[in-house]
Specification:
Length: 392
Amino acid sequence: MKGSPNPLINTLVHDILLSESTVHTPVNQELLTGKVAHIQNFLEQDSADHSHDIIVRLIAQALSRTSNSEGHEELLDFIQSLLPILPVDSNATQEKIRALIDIYRDRHGWDQVVIHLRQLTLLPIDIAVEAVCGLRRNKLVCPDDLTIVLIHNYDQESLMEASLKYTGIENFVVLHAPLDADKWRNSIKLSLLHDAIADGRITTQYLLYVDSCDAVIRNDPQMAIDMLNSQKCELLMSVANNRMAYSFMPLQEIKTDRLHQQEGIKNRCPNSGTYIAKTDYMLELLAAAIQFTDDNDLTLREYRWLCNHYKKIMQLSDTNNSLNIPGWYRQENPKSFISGFPNHIGCDQAIFRYLYPDQYPTFKLDFSEKLALRFWKTRKDRIRAMREEQID
């Protein structure tokens, strides 16, 4: 690894991305195009990962500086044009830059309280926070009657924590799970939150839970409380479109689908990555949920393997062990976790999905998708969809 960046990186920064003309006026396309050869030359000479990281960071800085300027869209288009000249072994770098471009193109339309997207994990935490939160630096407050709760096992600050601090919210609660990454089970979040409420660490009327690793705060948390109250429920949870775990509970799936058909909703189910609740009700629901959990729960890795191999597992007879069970999977027969569902399943979301139809309408889903952005169609996706409609 080289100790200092090639001078051509400075060309990229000062002459192209951070020049005064770029920041304050429409981009000079001829000037920018003339620099492409220099950038390509540098990348061909030095394809080390650290060089690519520097370029991602500098592009992020440029997009941040120009986000409200006249030339911002042109700069986005130009950066998009740079992607083909990156070395062929830099797919990860291209994916990061594409994520940045898409976020900066679309973020002005994001009016959700929380942005909960996988693409955020592609970027360094500070870049992801700046890209999504933008002008909200030190502009948000947490209502006095709300506790924002995060649960994780990280040694370092999480993405969600960084976004809360960036926007000015310091009074949140982090519940730390004493589990190594290979032993992580999502069901531990249920007992940690239950205990925090039961022993008085969370005393506010409302709580807002948000996943730590792939979500950021975007708008006023008071909006979440207002949504909950407007829905006249005790728990309002964000939605997903995957059917994971429903194979284990076909009756609950039928109940859920029937509930949603009454409201004209299709292919939506609970997503426990973001929810707003009245704390007293949440304590009652968690008390019911933790009855299905203990230290013998499936780890996240085991749970995902079980979901992905459900059909093959169910085809096995008690004497037929033809399924190639990974060496890291526990010794128990996988069928036992299916027949005993939801006991020991190890997934908070699966348990919430199990409880949801019998708790409705006290427990509702946010079909407006204003609590959290989970389904993001980028501008490229929308253009493709429009073209397909025109063809049809």
